[in-house]
Specification:
Elements (H helix, E strand, L loop, with lengths): L1 E5 L7 E4 L10 E10 L2 H7 L9 E2 L3 E9 L11 E5 L8 H4 L23 E2 L2 E2 L1 E2 L9 E5 L3 E3 L6 H5 L4 H12 L7 E5 L3 H12 L4 E6 L2 H10 L4 E4 L6 H8 L4 E6 L5 H8 L1 E9 L14 H4 L3 E4 L7 H13 L9 E5 L4 H10 L4 E5 L1
Parallel strand pairs: 4-9, 12-13, 12-15, 13-14, 15-16, 16-17, 18-19
Antiparallel strand pairs: 1-2, 1-4, 3-5, 3-10, 3-19, 5-6, 6-11, 7-8
Helix pairs in contact: 4-5
């Protein structure tokens, strides 16, 4: 099959022939990829901010159709439409038993053993799977717990975005922060995740949803399609925190950092009211350090890490599909350009340039 391979940080992705194993292990499934989103987390590996073994196939929010299932798989069948999600969980550790699969302590249990034939290889040598998904490829071989079966009425191109951008953003607002009616919310970064924080907070009844970005295009999306009541272009507004405090009568109840830039945590704290919460949703680099005045803590403010919007894939993803089919979830405006695998480096360039919300590779 063909896949987009990253052979070293800072290089372009190369379209190469990659092998998948002829035989599945008992708890695996084989999926013909339908679509995959290009996410900032993928970019962090490309630009070296997040170090991972190379060569690697990136892509961690994907959709497709099951073409084969392992002998022990009972609840997924050939022909099923699925979302492949980076929250791959063992199902047995303390976190999984507590209903927190996004915090799984034993993801190694979902991988092949070191002495087994790798799921991806090139001339007999392993090619690594980014987040155990590797969606920038025509085919995925995955642990059963990496996929969620969805309603076949759901368009597969849009379904791909559910696995990261939508689940992380909406879940951060709904589940993690539990935004309540009347709350004031700030969202720093109006990319794929940030826009979904906006729509999750708006759906929860927030009194204000204030989106910050440096792109007028993305801010227009935030206000026109994703529920933002106010937008601030930080490229032209010097003191965004002051503007936010004026809008919210003293500061936001919740501020979401959805970019992954340490300095923006300071901005989020300055924009938050006494007793408010800052939610670090963006992916920071391996070497990133976050520093802020301890005085912020004395004001009762808290800074909290977020992983995948506390996603429970097997229950939350079908609910999101239901929301879309019922007209309660915006996805069409989230999808930007749709490109082929051969154009994937153009899609990466769009991401760097801040063009659109989510470029989709479709197969």
């Amino acid at each position: 099959m063909r896949a987009a391979v990253l052979n070293a940080p800072h290089e372009r992705l190369r379209i190469e022939r990659i092998d998948t194993p002829d035989a599945l292990e008992p708890h695996e499934v084989r999926v013909a990829t339908a679509a995959v989103g290009i996410c900032h987390s993928d970019l962090h590996v490309i630009d070296g901010r997040v170090a991972r073994p190379m060569p690697v196939v990136l892509g961690h929010e994907a959709s497709g159709v099951v073409t084969e299932v392992g002998a022990a798989v009972r609840d997924v069948a050939v022909g099923d439409h699925v979302v492949a999600c980076f929250v791959v969980f063992c199902g047995e550790c303390r976190m999984c038993r507590a209903g927190r699969p996004a915090m799984c302590q034993n993801r190694e249990a979902t991988m092949r053993k070191a002495d087994a034939t790798p799921r991806l290889s090139r001339v007999g040598r392993e090619v690594h799977q980014w987040t155990n998904i590797a969606g920038f490829a025509e085919e995925m071989v995955l642990h059963r717990n990496a996929v969620t079966v969805i309603d076949a009425r759901m368009p597969l191109d849009l379904a791909a975005m559910l696995g990261c951008a939508v689940a992380t953003g909406v879940g951060s607002a709904r589940k993690v922060a539990a935004v309540a009616p009347g709350d004031h919310v700030v969202v720093i970064g109006a990319g794929g995740v940030g826009l979904n924080v906006c729509q999750g907070a708006a759906a929860a009844g927030a009194a204000s949803v204030i989106a910050l970005d440096r792109s007028d295009e993305r801010l227009a999306l935030a206000s026109e399609r994703f529920g933002a009541s106010h937008v601030i272009n930080t490229a032209s507004v010097v003191d965004a925190a002051s503007v936010i405090r004026d809008i919210t009568d003293g500061g936001a109840d919740h501020a979401f950092e959805a970019v992954g830039v340490p300095a923006l945590i300071d901005l989020a704290l300055d924009a938050t009211a006494r007793g408010g919460s800052v939610w670090a949703v963006g992916v920071f680099g391996d070497d990133a350090r976050i520093a802020f005045s301890a005085g912020q803590l004395h004001s009762g403010k808290g800074v909290h890490g977020v992983r995948a919007g506390s996603l429970q894939p097997q229950t939350d993803l079908p609910l999101l599909v239901g929301d879309f089919l019922a007209g309660r979830l915006e996805l069409e405006a989230l999808a930007g350009r749709r490109i082929g695998l051969d154009e994937i480096n153009d899609g990466v360039a769009d991401l760097v340039a801040g063009v659109g919300a989510r470029t989709l590779v479709v197969f």
